[in-house]
Amino acid sequence: MSATALIARQQLRLLSRSHTFLLMLVVLLGMTALSGFIGWSSHATILRVYDETVRTLTAAGKPAPPNPFAYKPRLSLLNNMTIYVPLIGALLAIVIGNMSITGDRQAGVTGIIFSRPVRRSSYFWGKVAGSAVAGAAIMIACLLLSVVGLTLINQGPPTMPELVRLTLFYALSGLYLLLFALIGLVAALLTSSRSLGLFAAVAVWALITFATPQFTSGLRPVASLNPVTDTSSISHSAFFRITSKTKPLAVNEQYKALSTRLLSQGNDVLHTGLGTSAAQLAPVLFFVALLGAWANRLIARHDFSDETARD
Amino acid sequence: MQRQTAAANVNGAGTAPVIAIENLVHRYGDVEVLHGIDLTVGAGEIFGFLGHNGAGKTTTIHVLTTLIVPASGSARVCGFDVVEERLGVQRNIGYLPENVRLYDSLTAAENLRFFAQLSGVEDITEAIDETLGILECRELADRRLSTFSKGMRQRIGIAQAILHRPRVLFLDEPTSGLDPMGVRQLRDTIVRLNSELGITIFMNTHLLSEVARVCTTIGVLAEGVLIYNDSLERTLERFPDEASLEDIYVRLDDQ
Fold it and tell me: Which chain B residues contact residue A303 at CB under 8 A?
């Protein structure tokens, strides 16, 4: 087995024994299991309100409009996942990335590892691979929970196109988690203590999740919480002209917009709008590549001889 | 006694040096911490590296274990250059850093398996069993390290360092934090590793009493300069007026 695979496997083994990680994982999986029910519950409430309105209108002898919610895509019941992943999932990914470095540091073994035939690049790729596999495993678990939830709610399994869209959504979410795992890893390398590394990474998470959207898509003040689509017109003031140009930098917004398209639109999203999808995916890929390159450089130059357990 | 004059090979004729350091210099930023050290350690020796905190002992070990690249000079371990032939060095050494904890959430055997795999050990299960047998701690194999005392951890730490049967073992303050019984056990272990497995041992330490009982050769480092290097036997002969190694160390340091 290569050194890269050994480092990755060791990281996964340590994660599987970490109480912090397991607790956050349970929360994310619990929310995933609940998301379908929450979506179904809110949809059912809307339908009941519509039915009540129809009854009132019919009793008054007035015509009732057709139900605007009758043909809502079934996957849109999982829309809440586009909130849970950037909130809970991203924090979980930060813990994964942070632990990938601080786990070895707390154990005081980095010096031992690099006194063995292990290249720095192998260590870097091992940590990235470990984080990616952990993120992928979490997303696969979420996918399975979502399929079970949708099957129970809709009284039948998702169709093949729905399964493809759901898989694409969770693949995108896995990539998004990798971005935050890299943020956690870089922050751990730049700081000397575990808590400081976590604090720095969480600060960046808050910036990306809550602050950046305000500077890049100011017309959507609730976008940090709700997966709403773009409004139809943009103000022509200087502020909005600038922020509309910097919008691609809002990686959180791009993730949510693409996720919402995958979950809330019909199956035609797979056949049309590929350019838009690519444009929304590009910032996530760009920042993953950028952070990956940075982490690689930091590991290549880091003085691992001076690693001691702190806090 | 003049500084550096004892740096020539003091290991006796016919003993090939496994560690050879020439004019080694290292800097952290603008601060020079090693000022041109010359030192050789022969095969089969137990070398005690003495010096105050901050003298440069750990930095020297970090250079010899390929963790840092020296500013200038050269160092060879088992004939391999620590900068140009790192892989050769890494395959021939074991290293136990100071205050190593290892992975708390894993068992001793799981910890050892990881380091054995990194070192390319072929029959890992046998290597772990044999090594724990040598260190007389087979019963610790399936226990998590979070339940271990400092002394138990130190034994597993030594186990990871010798799993692949290195030719040279580097120990950085191995007695740090150990109780008297732990120190005694560690001393016995070091002697056994040297006599039974033929491992050359390079040990940074403050415990002069242990050095006197275990080491065959000593070196004294003061502010990045090797001020003394000779066999323990000749050292004791050279300073007949001093009652203990501690007295000799104080006298050397004063000079």
Answer: 68
Judged by a CB distance cut-off of 8 A, whether residue A10 touches chain B is yes
Which of B87, B79, B46 has its CA nearest to residue B217?
B46
Q: Which of A17, A103, A111 sits opposite B97 (nearest CB)?
A: A111
Q: Look up the pTM and report it.
A: 0.85
- Residue B91 to chain A, least CA–CA distance (Å): 7
Which of residues 262 through 291 in chain A touch B, CB cutoff 8 A? none
Give pLDDT tens digits for A265-280: 755 555 566 777 787 8
Contact B87 A117 (CB under 8 A): yes
Residue B27 contacts A, CB cutoff 8 Å = no
Delimit the domains of chain B by residue range: 5-92+166-254, 101-164
| ipTM (interface predicted TM) | 0.87
Look at residue A231 in the predicted model and tell me its pLDDT.
Answer: 53
* Minimum mean pLDDT range among A209-218, A284-293, B140-149: A209-218
Among the partner-chain residues A1, A112, A115, the one whose CB lies closest to the CB of B117 is A1
> Over the stretch B101-160, which tens digit does the pLDDT of each residue have?
899 999 999 999 999 999 999 899 999 999 999 888 889 999 999 999 888 898 999 999
- Indicate the domain borders of chain A: 3-36+80-306
* DSSP per-residue codes, B22-68: EEEEEEETTEEEEEEEEEEEETT-EEEEEE-TTSSHHHHHHHHTTSS
Cα(A303)–Cα(B96) distance, integer angstroms: 17
CATH of domain B5-92+166-254: 3.40.50.300
Q: How far apart are CA A253 and CA B88, in angstroms?
A: 50
User: Mean pLDDT score of chain A, rounded to an integer?
Assistant: 85
Ramachandran sector of residue B23 (left: φ over 0; alpha: ψ -120 to 50; beta: rest): left
Number of H helices, E strands in chain A: 12, 0
Strand partners, B49: B204, B219
Residue A119 near chain B (CB below 8 Å): no
Average pLDDT, rounded, for chain B: 86
Rg, chain B, Cα only: 18
pLDDT above 90 as % of chain B: 54
